[in-house]
Amino acid sequence: MGRVQGKVAFVTGAGRGQGRSHALRLAEEGADIIAVDVCSDFDSIGYPMARPEDLEETADLIEKTGRRVVAAQADVRDGAQLAQAVQRGLDQFSRLDIVVAQAGVAGMFGNPPLQAWRDTIETNLIGTINAIHTALPHLTEGASIVATGSTAALMDTSKNDNPGADTGGMAYITSKRLLSQFVHDLATELAPRGIRANVIHPTNCNTDMLQSEPMYRAFRPDLENPTREDSEPLFAVQQAMPIRFIEPLDISNAVLWLASDEARFVTGMQLRVDGGGYLKWYDYHI
Fold first, then answer.
1. Which of 189, 141, 184, 191 is nearest to 270 (CA)?
2. 25: number of CA atoms within 13 Å, CB side?
3. Per-residue model confidence as pLDDT tens for the chain (286 residues)
4. Alpha carbon 93 to chain centroid distance?
5. Which of 27, 92, 193, 255 would disulfide-bridge 62, Cβ 3.0–4.6 Å?
6. Whether residue 172 lies in the annotated active site
7. CA angle, 215 then 217 then 218, to 5°
8. CA nearest 128: which of 64, 180, 185?
9. CA 237 to chain centre
10. Per-residue DSSP letters for 106-156?
11. What Å distances lie between residue 14 and 37, 42, 61, 95, 132, CA to CA?
12. What is the β-pairing status of strands 98-101 and 144-148?
């Protein structure tokens, strides 16, 4: 216990799913939390986002660990909203040590498709950049930045035999690739200041994003209205290990390690928590 004792973490997408799990895990290990979530739906995204009451529940769970929390509704696409949320946290906690840029959407089969592309890129890529750069002026030596990528970012999509069929899905892959490059290059520039930056790449994770109609259709395009029962067996195709998905806590434990002093010399890492998914797609190379 206490692996991030006395630190303050800024977590985006904290209303539910991975974001809530990351915030709670850091709180369990001693961090105070600035938790933000948009708490409103996207017309172009085919599944609902977290609700204000979800963010309130996250805050309640954090407080039950004995840690403090500042929770705010904020859209990561809007840098001014993020700045206001971070300032509220600084007013309360007077420091910032950890950034977890988790907020993201999967615009698969979005309607209209080009709006799904825009909303996905602006949330996953621009939102990550906004969160990190909002926090950067307040970070000092020893700080840790963790961004959420995806195993999808590492997949070979060069043989797209049906372009335009899933514009939002391609936007998801593109956004995760570009944020990974951004964090890699940022880590290089921040290293002399003693600030670390890393990306975690999850495989299928058991959240509302995965357990959604658009994702079921992505895995079972042969069915008109696939259900969870129809689709879950196909989830296993993503991993080399005999699993269909991982749990948010599996990612949260990696976030905790990267945020802690145990990883004080780990930076620029593209850390895969993917059940061996990458192993199914690529030969060994350094």
1. 184
2. 23
3. 899 999 999 999 999 999 999 999 999 999 999 999 999 999 888 899 999 999 999 999 999 999 999 999 999 999 999 999 999 999 999 999 999 999 999 877 656 678 888 999 999 999 999 999 999 999 999 999 999 999 988 877 776 766 766 677 788 999 999 999 999 999 999 999 999 999 999 999 999 999 999 889 889 989 999 999 999 999 999 999 999 999 999 999 999 999 999 999 999 999 999 999 999 878 787 6
4. 24
5. 27
6. yes
7. 60
8. 180
9. 22
10. --TT-SSHHHHHHHHHIIIIIHHHHHHHHHGGG--TT-EEEEE--GGGGS-
11. 6, 17, 12, 19, 15
12. parallel
Q: Tell me if 203 sits within 8 A of 273, measured CB to CB.
A: yes
Which token pair is 282? 């690529």
Distance of CA 26 to the CA centre of its chain: 15
Collapsing DSSP states into helix, strand and coil, what is residue 55? helix
Q: Which amino acid is at 127?
A: G
Tokens of 149: 């990528």
Spatial contact of 104 and 123, defined as CB atoms under 8 Å apart: yes
State the catalytic residue, choosing from 172, 216, 278, 282: 172
Strand partners, 205: 246
